[in-house]
Design a protein that fits this description.
Helix 1 runs antiparallel to helix 2. This protein is mainly α and 231 residues long. The C terminus is likely disordered. The longest helix has 39 residues. Helix content is 84%, strand content 0%. It has one domain: Up-down Bundle (Methane Monooxygenase Hydroxylase, Chain G, domain 1).
């Protein structure tokens, strides 16, 4: 009876982990496609990203339901409790990444109707590729339970901030040089800010992974770019 209970318990944990991995894969695609929608001015792809966001919401609700049920019925402790709570927290961060990707896609619909600002768009693309890579790396770290890889993602958080600051200054230059670009630049600034936030969520997930596996929080101050002119 005990063996059967333990096996059922482990199967429930594995089910939550599998669902979380699937959610991570969908979030990766959403982020990557939203970036492509911006850089390619692809209205159809942007609309697809927006419509797919509901699926991420559904999976988050399912993971939450499973995790709460597991905690209530099995009363996990120590490693298993951390693993269950980590799944809850990671799913929340992934759902937020999906929301931010949807926001980027909505901006893509508007930007596609305006004159292109090719140099800034290329900067956005580079920042987007960096953020997408960080999200992939942290999800790979989760799948492999690789603390070192999670720490690398956490330590490189400042790189995204640096890209954001560079784009912010680039957009200010355009707006001051030609007021007609203000509307387009404002939309691109929101895109860059959303990308920065996705990077922050990847860093959050890295912290969650380290705590889940070690039981110890990262006590170092998160590496952030300290710039007074950042909005």
């Amino acid at each position: 009876m005990v063996e059967h209970t333990l096996r059922a318990y482990e199967e429930e944990l594995e089910g939550i982990t599998a669902e979380l991995s699937r959610m991570g894969g969908l979030a990766e695609v959403e982020v990557a496609d939203s970036i492509r929608a911006i850089t390619r001015r692809d209205v159809a792809l942007a609309q697809t990203v927006i419509s797919r966001d509901a699926r991420l919401d559904e999976i988050e609700v399912d993971i939450e339901r499973r995790a709460i049920r597991l905690i209530a019925l099995r009363q996990p402790v120590a490693d298993d409790l951390r693993r269950t709570v980590a799944a809850l927290k990671i799913s929340m961060n992934l759902e937020r990444c999906g929301d931010l990707a949807k926001n980027i896609a909505k901006r893509a619909l508007v930007i596609a109707e305006s004159d292109p600002l090719t140099p800034v768009t290329r900067s956005i693309e580079r920042m987007g590729e960096l953020v997408a890579a960080r999200l992939k790396d942290v999800l790979d770290a989760f799948a492999a339970r690789d603390i070192d890889r999670a720490r690398v993602v956490w330590q490189r958080d400042q790189e995204v901030d640096e890209h954001y600051d560079s784009i912010f200054r680039e957009l200010l230059t355009y707006m001051m040089g030609d007021p007609r670009t203000i509307a387009s630049c404002a939309h691109l600034l929101f895109v860059a800010k959303n990308l920065e936030r996705i990077g922050d969520h990847a860093t959050n997930i890295a912290e969650i992974i380290v705590y889940e596996i070690t039981g110890e929080p990262l006590t170092d101050q998160r590496p952030k770019l300290d710039s007074l002119d950042r909005p």
